Amino acid sequence: MMLRIALSALAAACVLAAPLPAHADDPAPEPGSALDAEGLSLGWELRPTGVTARLRGLSPVSRDVAWASGSEGAVLRTADGGRTWERVSPPGTETLQFRDVEAFDARRAVVLSIGEGGDSRVYRTDDAGRTWTETFRNDEPKAFYDCMAFFDARHGLAMSDPVDGRFRILATEDGGRSWQVLPPAGMPEALPGEAGFAASGQCLVTAGGRDAWLASGGAERSRVFHSADRGRTWTVADTPIPAGDPARGVFALAFRDRRQGLAVGGDYRTGQPSPAAGALSDDGGATWRGAATPPPAYRSGVTWVPHLPFAAIAVGPSGSDVTLTGGRTWRTFDTGSFDTVSCTPDLSCWASGENGRVARLALRRP
C-alpha cells in the first residue's frame, strides 16, 4: 500500500511539473516498462540522437535542454526535449572519450575527456557548442581523470585516479576556464589498486556550496571520500558495496543534501552477480549501510528526483530501478540498458548509454 501511494505521488508530481501530451512524433515507451501508480506507465521514452557513440556523460538542464557526451569525441545538445540533437563536439577530438559533461544552461557547458596523459582534457563553451576553449590538458603521466562536478557556476572539482598513492583533485574558481591541482596532503592514502570508475560522470558529486564526495573501487574495500571544504581536505568511509576485484566498487553517488546520500555499483562484468549493489547514508557519508532490497544487478548511475525527498532512480546495463524509500528498497521498472541518469528541477529525468541511447522518463495513462 505504501509503495502504491508513493508511486502515485511520484506520478502526480511528474505529470504536473512536466506534462507529456501525446504528440504524434513522441516515441512509444521502451519495452519492459512497469505498469503501476493507478494505471500509469513508468518507463523511458527514447529520444533518438542519430549517433552510435556510448554516451556516459549526461547533463540535462530542463525539460527541453540537455547535453550528452561520450566516445568518438561525441558532444550532443538538444533544445527541444530531445526531438532533435545537434553534434557540437570540440574540433579535432574524434578519438577522445568525453565521459563527463556539466552544463550550466543552454549555452554554457564544460566537458571532460578521460585517459592517460594528454587524453585527459577539459573544454568549455559559452555559445552552445559553436566554439570551444581547451582549459586543461593533463601533463602528469600517472594521472587519469575520471569525473568532475560543480558546486555552482564558478566553483568545481575534477578527480584523477591516485598519483603517488593519493587521489588527485583539480579545482576551478572561474567556471572551468582555468584549473589548479590541489595539494595532496589533505587526501587520505589510497588502498592498493584503488581507483575511480569513469562510467557515468557520477564518481564525483557535490551538494550545497562546499561538500563533495568521490567514489572508489578496485581495491579490497569500496569506499567513499568526503570533503567539506571544496576539496582541500577529505575523510573516507567504507561501504558494503562489493569490492576485492578491479571490476568491483562504488560507481556512482548522489547526495540530496549534505546528509542524505546514495551509492550504487557492483561488478561491471557481464553475467557477474552484484548482490549488494546499493547503499545509503544519512550522515553525510560518514557511515554507509546496505539497502534492504538493493538493485538486482550492477548499476552505474543514480540520481535523486527533485522535490520528492525519498525518490531516486538508478540505471545500469541490465535495467533501471526506482526507490521511494530513500534507497532502502529498490524496484526494477525497465530492462533497457543505460549508463547514467539525471533529473532537473522541473522534474524531467533523463538517461543515456550505449549506441547513442538517450531517453526521458515518461508517465502516461495507457
UniProtKB/TrEMBL annotation:
CDD domains: Sialidase_non-viral (cd15482)
SUPFAM superfamilies: Oligoxyloglucan reducing end-specific cellobiohydrolase (SSF110296)
InterPro entries, per database record: WD40/YVTN_repeat-like_dom_sf
Keywords from the named record: Signal
Signal peptide per UniProt: 1-24
Protein name as annotated: Oxidoreductase
Residue ranges crossing the lipid bilayer per the database entry: none
Annotated stretches, region: Disordered: 264-292
